[in-house]
Amino acid sequence: MKTQVSEEIKQRCEELKISDDAMVELMDLFLRELNKGLSKKDNPTADVKCFITYIKDLPNGEERGKFLALDLGGTNFRVLIVHLKGDKDFEMESKIYAVPQDLMVGGAEQLFDHIADCLANFMKDQNVYDERLSLGFTFSFPLQQLGLTKGLLVKWTKGFNVAGVTGEDVVKLLKDAIKRRGDIQIDICAILNDTTGTLMSCAWKNHNCRIGLIVGTGSNACYVEKIENIEMYEGLETNQMIINTEWGALGDNGSLEFIRTSYDRAIDEQSINRGKQIYEKMISGMYMGELVRLILLRFTKDGLLFNGMDSELLRKSQEFQTNYVSQIESDEIGNYKNCMEVIHKLGLSANFKDCANVRYICECVSTRSAHLVSAGIACLINKMNEQSVTIGVDGSVYRYHPKYHDLMVKRIRQFVRPEISFDLMLSEDGSGRGAALVAAVACREEGRISG
Ligand SMILES: Nc1ncnc2c1ncn2[C@@H]1O[C@H](COP(=O)(O)OP(=O)(O)OP(=O)(O)O)[C@@H](O)[C@H]1O
């Protein structure tokens, strides 16, 4: 039997719904912002910066050799070695290293020495310590790229705030750290964003892939744009280029106020990058659990949940993890096993009605996230206007939330021109292989073979 969600809670969650009208408004807004980002005149005032990646060629399947990749950009730092053997055949080994909290907010040298240290350690593990290898560096923070191997950090996001990196060339910082060690030989062939890595990784398997999307710690998307639409590009002749939209910053100028709630404002207030990444803060894993917690706390204080009794843990910031949202929504309808478990973990006592309400709140927050992402993707698909397009997707929210994919497909379908077909493809191997592929494509162009 399905326990009913209380009417008052339903009513108070209405503000979390993205109506059809709001979807259209959001898509129009995003399109305007994209065009501003691409335009020379308007770029300086655009929220969505549309960074040029200098990646113009997608993999053609002929890339071969051994490549290293680094993936820094959120919860985990990974080092990978990818052996591309051709015909979609490859071997990959990777290791996850922690980035200690003090390094996330420390100094540049400490962070990059740590990265170089992990790299050397990994090369020893993989018996390639003495080899000279090419490396693709996935660095998933807003970068102003000046070339394939030169990128200046525009600003830190997602909990990082390392001094002395903003405005600096991140490739040079890594090169310097490698040089300081003096024991490993690495050619850094490319720096890229995880969206680009995801797009490249998926494009290797599916040549229709033209959009890369991340819904993980943060949220971002990239897409293949025609060169005539990229006024900002002044480099060598080419037909197309991957544009890293950095869409997380949509709304930084106040344009999303029509859908923001008091909970979103509270999230922003307590963040280390206030006023920044407004769209991302309504979507991504770093904030989703906390949004649910703030709503639960508010409703409990107002006597709508848990008999008005909160708990120390519910009052504590970050205690409601985003993966709880997935767990709670994975319960079968009418069954609250996971939900009860989470509620008990938080030191609360609940009846079935509370469980139904908690689940409903989770659904509202995760559905809103999926709909916001869908507006962005539908806008990109319509803008590209190709007959058929695949979107490569990565990130734990998309990967593990039980309904995120279906919610997106349904909502995108509603707003994409009917004659266009699309599909969402989960990136199985993460953006790391994409970084190796970018390095490989760069080597292919230069006629070099690594490993
Ligand atoms: N089962 C889950 N359901 C929903 N969200 C989850 C789940 N597991 C982890 N997350 C959230 O996903 C985020 C981590 O995403 P991911 O594993 O893709 O890492 P990431 O690579 O650091 O992210 P990004 O690509 O944005 O830098 C965290 O915010 C975490 O709370």
UniProtKB/TrEMBL annotation:
Pfam families, per the entry: Hexokinase_1 (PF00349), Hexokinase_2 (PF03727)
Mention one GO biological process in which this protein takes part, according to its record. Answer: intracellular glucose homeostasis
| Hexokinase N-terminal domain location | 9-204
Q: Where is the Hexokinase C-terminal domain?
A: 210-441
Root EC class? transferase
Q: Name one GO cellular component term.
A: cytosol
Q: Which UniProt keywords apply?
A: ATP-binding, Glycolysis, Kinase, Nucleotide-binding, Transferase
Q: Which residues form the signal peptide?
A: none
* InterPro entries in UniProt: ATPase_NBD, Hexokinase, Hexokinase_BS, Hexokinase_C, Hexokinase_N
Task: Please list the reactions this protein catalyses.
Answer: a D-hexose + ATP = a D-hexose 6-phosphate + ADP + H(+); D-glucose + ATP = D-glucose 6-phosphate + ADP + H(+); D-fructose + ATP = D-fructose 6-phosphate + ADP + H(+)
* Gene3D superfamilies xref list: 3.30.420.40, 3.40.367.20
Pathway(s) served: Carbohydrate degradation; glycolysis; D-glyceraldehyde 3-phosphate and glycerone phosphate from D-glucose: step 1/4; Carbohydrate metabolism; hexose metabolism
Q: Name one GO molecular function term.
A: ATP binding
Provide the E.C. number(s) assigned to this enzyme: 2.7.1.-
Q: Family, per the entry?
A: Belongs to the hexokinase family.
Q: Which PANTHER family does the record cross-reference, listed alphabetically?
A: HEXOKINASE, HEXOKINASE TYPE 1-RELATED
Stated name of the protein: Phosphotransferase
Please name the source species: Pseudolycoriella hygida
